[in-house]
Amino acid sequence: MPADAIDILFIHPGSHRPLYQGLSDEFSAIEPPAFAGLFASYLRLQGCSVGILDAAALGLEPAEVARQALEDWNPTLIALAVYGHQPSASTQLMTAAGAIAAAVKALDPTRPIFMTGTHPAALPQRTLEEEAVDFVCDGEGPVTLLKTLIALQAEGRDFCTIPSLWRRQDGHIVAPTAHELLIQDLDQTMPGIAWDLLPMERYRAHNWHCLDRLDRRAPYASIHTALGCPYRCSFCCINAPFHQPSYRMWSAASVLREIDRLVNDYGVTNIKIIDEMFVLNRRHVLDLCDGLIALGYPLNLWAYARVDTIREEWLPKLKAAGFNWLCLGIESASRHVRDGADKHYCNEDIISVVRQIQSAGIHVLGNYIFGLPDDTAESMQDTLDLALALNCEFANFYTAAAYPGSALYRQAVAQGLELPRRWHHFYQHSEYTLPLPTATLTPAEVLAFRDQAFTTYFSSPHYLARVERTFGPAVTAHLRRMTAIPLRRKLLETPP
């Protein structure tokens, strides 16, 4: 640890057990805080001294995080980077982030704390009202953070003209008068993650990502090749910090340098592409694939795609480049329900694309959502039936949740719907998770269906036979252990 004070310490909050319950020990991933790492690289290029304290990966309680931050780092500014490993994961980190901020202020009430992330960007005023922080960013983050640091270090401490910066002044909350512009030249200004600041030995891949190598889930890394998303799915909050649908890419050369460093400096071959939509831009995808094929590393990559962005002619190159998994947002078997989520294609398209991917030797992770606004008991059953028929190599089953920054959140607030009482209760595996109701279904009915769908899918003889043929009996046993772990659900408990 550094002996001298530093300019900015990033803290990545989180605690796996309250979020994942019994799944946390063996089955969940432990992912590096990509945005904290990217922002650290940006600030280093601006001449700042930076550190990262990954409380989630290190398993630290808030009091210990606060002690280490102040005693070992002594930063001019603490930055709580509340970015999850998918857009919805930001909100679930807010409980831990708030506890860390309170613990820091208990030890040093004058230490400035800055909060950035998808959730704070969506609810900046509420975040300042509820949390023990001094500054909240409603935009992308790094430029606002740098300007805040400069103002703190200046004699006058003038924050008035900093775009996207919410702050307290004389007991009142002051909103910014403008949004900070998005960074455009990603290659030059934010060229990769500051891996040397992270506890790389702590990270491990999702279990499904390594079904063919369960004993080699570490080392592991996750990287961005692009920021933002051009789509407007009703359940997604990814564009909250960007204020509009957008899509900015690093060059293939920049991404290849990042992967080359991960392989050669840290021995990483299991890599997640975090982009909310990787399989989208033809030149971006194919240039990166060509570069990876030329490097020849034995990579195990996965990335997100949409049914309507997959091009069959790209699939052989994706496989050759090391993409062993593609994650598809299938969401629902009902076209009417999908249309409400801004996904316009038919079930025949879904089936065709899944089979194309599998025919190319790439595994499919199917994502499904129960309880979208137009869902009924019948449409949810149709979705489960579609999942069973597709028989993807793995599946995620979610309940519709009103994440701040999403259209569903705005609708839920306008309708006065009950939302989870604490931020970490938004997480799908939380004991206290509370799905949205639909016109015909209660939250409890949606949640009960989701949990039963999970058990039905992963206990299906048809599915288990496929897994055993593809990955072997040890993986089948692994999945049986996963399915046997019960999730406590307060919503489904019978009152005494």
Question: Which features characterize this protein?
Answer:
single chain, 496 residues, alpha/beta, Rossmann fold, pyruvate-formate lyase- activating enzyme, 2 domains, seven-stranded mixed β-sheet, six-stranded parallel β-sheet, 20 helices, 15 strands, globular
Distance between the termini: 52 Å
Write down the Rg: 22 Å
Strand order of the largest sheet: 2-1-3-4-5-6-7
Low-confidence stretches: none
Report the CATH C-level class of the largest domain. Alpha Beta
State which percent range the strand residues make up.
5-15%
**Inertia-based shape:** globular
Number of H/I helices: 20
The strand count comes to 15
Query: Biggest β-sheet, characterized?
Result: 7 strands, mixed
Query: By helix and strand content, what is the structural category?
Result: alpha/beta
CATH topology type of the largest domain: pyruvate-formate lyase- activating enzyme
The average pLDDT score comes to 93
Oligomer: single chain
The total tally of domains equals 2
CATH architecture of the largest domain: Alpha-Beta Horseshoe
Portion in helices: 25-40%
| Corresponding CATH superfamily of the largest domain | tm_1862 like domain
